Amino acid sequence: MVKLGANVSIAKTGLQRAVEESISYQADTYMIYTRSNRGGEARPIEQFNRDQALEAAKAHQISDPVVHLSYLVNLASPKPETYEYGVMILTEEIRRVSYLGFRYIVMHPGSHVGTGMEAGIERIAQGLNEILTGDESLYICLETMAGDGSKVGNTVEEIASIIERVNHHDRMAVCIDTCHNYSAGYDIVNDFDGFLTQFDKVIGLDRLKVAHINDSKTPFHSKKDRHENIGRGSLGFEAINRIVHHPALQEIPLILETPGGHYRQEIALLRGETDELPG
Ligand code: FE
Ligand code: FE
Ligand code: ZN
Questions:
Q1: How far is the CA of 76 from the centre of ligand 2 (A)?
Q2: Which ligand is nearest to the CA of 217?
Q3: How far is the CA of 166 from the centre of ligand 2 (A)?
Q4: CB burial string 231-267: b at 16+ within 10 A, e below
Q5: Reported pTM
Q6: pLDDT digits (tens, 9 = 90+) for 83-136
Q7: How far is the CA of 59 from the centre of ligand 3 (A)?
């Protein structure tokens, strides 16, 4: 079964808001950020109305929710204070997400900020080794990046080298992002199977736990990270629809992170309930 959802809000009522919004999209799953990407103190997770929200989700067959880690975390940073902040925030986030009972935290691996890919990979693994105890009941899903800036984790090889160096690598998984992969130079429009074959060989398909489904405002191999509405960008509806319905992506949460608030329409489109493009 296709499991579609979107990046939803936690404004005011926390998880309750996230689930209500997901119900309004007729979604099967959802993703939230539990704290602002602008920094500051996080709202206590105990104030997220967890129990009522999870009950409502269950009543609407909404499952496998995902948390996206704050963008401010950069374990690849050469600055000690940035690295330490990342260790602190991810440690706290694991506790918060465990309280919610979610199984997936998606994180951007990081940016090496000019120190080189190898050094970045090493610091990310070091950070994860400081944080993970092996007793976690969730997966840290490294998201594949678009090749922009000094990002780490643009190729399956880079992602695999991080995972290989993590002691508790059974806690490690991967989140692909169709916009990022296409921008990074994987031609998933014409050969998604080729990409999956490479992913399987280098990382192992059993680690693929989450996928972000986005079209892209920029062309193939542009190394830019600019999300576009489904069918309105360089990937196009046909390719994205094929990816969404690929056997390897059934049962895992497929999360839209597209602009403009067209999630209801995009979910209907990818379910074949309408052929009208969003926006
Ligand atoms: Fe992301
Ligand atoms: Fe993403
Ligand atoms: Zn992106």
A1: 18
A2: 3
A3: 22
A4: bbbbbebebbbebbeeeebeebbbbbebeeebbbbbb
A5: 0.98
A6: 999 999 999 999 999 999 999 999 999 999 999 999 999 999 999 999 999 999
A7: 31
